[in-house]
């Protein structure tokens, strides 16, 4: 399904209703990716507008908006054939070890314009690339830490709501580890690195992973939480 065909126009009160329903549903069932995605879209328009303006001011960001690359199997499958030391191979290993597919992300439905819909789609599709770059696992601590980085990069309200929801579900040991180690690291990592929405990742798949981390100011996660 194309981005344009997936879009659903909403009035302001309809947006508010979808946001409220999605927030409640996501709290009840945090595994509902579609509800979390809907919450992000209906509360994130100002943030996505700011990201769009930053991309328009960046040469690489403008190239992304012009080409509109997608992180889907059809366009990134070559990453599985790259040498082990490359960024692309690290991404392929991350996805393959978890039996993830680049095509699993729900489509963007509630953005008003094609440009904003693409920016929201891009933000959603680079999520696993950021996991790879920062060396974060996909457990509750890893996902919560990445949401902090996403908030520092994009200021999406949904990211902070997800962090709050995540900390509620932590046990005492996880909460202590997150607050003492991962939260301070994620805030620093999100602020120190380059504007990650203005990176044309697909052009860098064949480059050395550690080299692109240095180039983009990436601070890898302190350790993998057990």
UniProtKB/TrEMBL annotation:
Pfam families: Coq4. It is found in: Mitochondrion inner membrane. It is a peripheral membrane protein. PANTHER family: UBIQUINONE BIOSYNTHESIS PROTEIN, UBIQUINONE BIOSYNTHESIS PROTEIN COQ4 HOMOLOG, MITOCHONDRIAL. Lyase that catalyzes the C1-decarboxylation of 4-hydroxy-3-methoxy-5-(all-trans-polyprenyl)benzoic acid into 2-methoxy-6-(all-trans-polyprenyl)phenol during ubiquinone biosynthesis. Belongs to the COQ4 family. This is Ubiquinone biosynthesis protein COQ4 homolog, mitochondrial. It comes from Brassica napus.
